Amino acid sequence: MELVQTTTMINNVSIIIPSFYSDKLTSICIKSFEKFKPPSLKINYIVVENSSDISYKEHIVSLANNIQWINNETQLRYSEANGEAVEIGLKSISTEYVFLVHCDVCVTHKNFFTELFQKIYDGNKLVGTSLDPIRLKATHISGVLVETTIAKSVSFSPLYMSGKQIADSGDALTIKCRAENIPHYCFENTFNSPDLINNLTEKFKPLNGVSRTIDKDNNVIFMHLGRGIEKTQGLYKEKNKVLFADWVDFCENILK
User: With bands split at pLDDT 50, 70 and 90, how would you rate the model's confidence at 8?
Assistant: First the structure.
């Protein structure tokens, strides 16, 4: 795919990965970025462990160059903890762009960075891999590339009104883009459009509940397990969804 350059070429990006006792998930996440990144791209990883655990720190920082580990001994959980981790990670970066992810994601195709950066070259300031359909249809921070100045200008705390959550961690990015007419884009994916599963290769069809982001040629370029931390701890009970062990097996086959 030929890139249409409308801005400085991206050759350095930071990736913030909140983690929580999740050695295997975080390992797969980093390995997938490393496997499919272009040779010219430098990635600065910031892993924010939302606990005092350092038992797998040595393993994680050995997976690539430029991995920074931060322990965040928070009592927060779920969206609140994720938002706090992102804000802590943002303090450590100076790159023009930052990619925000959950630890239960996996890059699955060589086209991923080409497709992602092309959307920036097209003029977008934020590019997401899926939308949260529940509240504001905002870009979900399980996978979103955004200008760092934009990311640093918003709060990543979830918002509540009368005890009801009205905005998730990261929704403020989309709110800002809409309010200020900042160009932004979200790829097609099977989470928002389940019928797209019919267009996938047989290999990627059976992953029930997994969000699969696709390019224009129906290649699956990125996946988000969903509820990954709960699944590692055996706390996820919904039936007929891909579980932790199946995710690990599938991703490790891709990363061979």
Answer: low
